[in-house]
Amino acid sequence: MSEQELARKSVEYRRKILKYIYQAKAGHTGGSLSCIDILNVLYNHILNVNAADFASPDRDRYIQSKGHTVEALYVVLASKGFFPESDLDTLCRYQSHYIGHPTRKVHGVEQNTGALGHGLSLSVGTAIAGKLDKKDYRVFTLLGDGELPEGSNWEAALSASHYKLDNLCAILDKNTLQISGPTSAVCDIDPVDKKFEAFGWAVRHVDGHDFKQLKAAFEAIPFEKGKPSLVIAHTIKGKGISYMEGQLKWHHGVPSTEQYAVALEELNVAEETIA
Amino acid sequence: MEATIENIALKNEANLEVFSKTLQRLAAEDRDIIVVTSDSRGSGKLVPFGQKFPDQIVEVGIAEQNLVGVSAGLASTGKKVFAVSPACFLTARALEQIKNDVAYSDNPVKLIGISAGVSYGALGSTHHSLHDFAVLRTINNLVIVAPADNFETEQAIRLAAESDFPVYLRFGKKAMPLLSEDEKTFEFGKGRIVREGGDINIIATGETVAPALQAAEKLERESGISASVVSMHTIKPLDYNLLNKLALSGKPIITVEEHSVYGGLGEACASYFMQTGHRNPFKIIAIPDEYTVTGSQQEIFAHYGISEEGIAASARKLCKGL
Description:
Chain A is α/β, with parallel strands linked by helices.
């Protein structure tokens, strides 16, 4: 998919993320908007997964460790035909399968996540199985910078390099904000690149909203043979909506009717400016 | 599943030897059997397994959360995964991974808690798992099993390997006597009656079934009290049919376990009896709410009445209505 097409897709995804969070009056708006360009490139350009053959043992795996930004995942899966988009009208409603964190009740979701610090270990196990079975599939997991202080991440990071899992790619959605404040103030993870490198990973930095950089990074995996890859995607929480960008209150803020209208107008303008 | 001659041959071996040998037999025929271990190769008696099947063992080091998460990832691809770690650490440090990555995500990992209860004896309370039944019973979609002899161990491993649901198997360290030459049926969720009697019912689990059986024989010999003894190897789902049958006898019921008095077999049985209107005289023998006295497993058992003498004494009192 071209960068222009990806850009248009992301506008569409942002529109839908806001729509369903607005309707449900619940959701993680800021983080969904920071990671959506990453999911866009993965699902529309990189991953070998499709709705009709999701049980294939050869499919690539995407495990969303930062499960709270599930709205980003749901709108992408709907657009890929995993379920009718109208299902999202039930988001977070009584007895809906579309819970506020990923569950396997939803077609296309690999693992139930939401508690932080779980995705990387699950991905390591899946990647080890790929190596044991001599399969070509790759495993991608999306980490949040706020979840990295969970020690389980570092246990998993050790075993990923111990087993030379170059079929594993972790993506860090580094939007630098978590629920209580800047990650640097809550528990600084930097220099996170040096930490992962010291743990035996190959690391690259990208602008997490630049489709060209995201495509180039994912196409270059593994960055080094015999090493797991980490893409540090520098992102902006609330990206795409002026009054949400970099604002802590939009971690799980829900727009009012007026705010929602402003957001949609900004997305319309953004769409018109795409070449 | 039919009992095999191997059960008899293995009867004097340590529990974990049976575990390891059974897994080796299964792994030789099934490349999908994978052992994941957290530096427990030696304590889990898995060194021969690792030597014979180097491609079927994954070592994560001392990292229980990662052990369970990695195991869940492996299981999600169709591998038959046995995650092996001391019970105390597996079920406390990795509890959230057991809840979310295994049970909630329906990744059918076989969680193997080794050296459970007070098997580590004088190593102390950090190494005792007296909480595992309690915490795991509250987790949906998890079968909890504590075999009581090498026959049950072998059968449990074989059944677990073929199960498409998550299982927690709780193992002690030492050799266990073969409980019954006659009763050779084993099924998850079905208690095994290893001794029939008419005056009192003793329901035990894991390594406490042997002293319960000894106590029953002592009671018969010394007091003419005839006791039934049940190996309630499956803590969840509990065998309500059998509990009902035992309660309908109207006779006293004693439960015995190597676990805290809170949240284990005894409270599970009490809950069933109360909610179904059974009012048999009832006694829970377990470790009280304290950090245990220093000693070997047998000394700790004796201290808290989980012994031939202690169980028999409790039974006599209950039969007298004391």
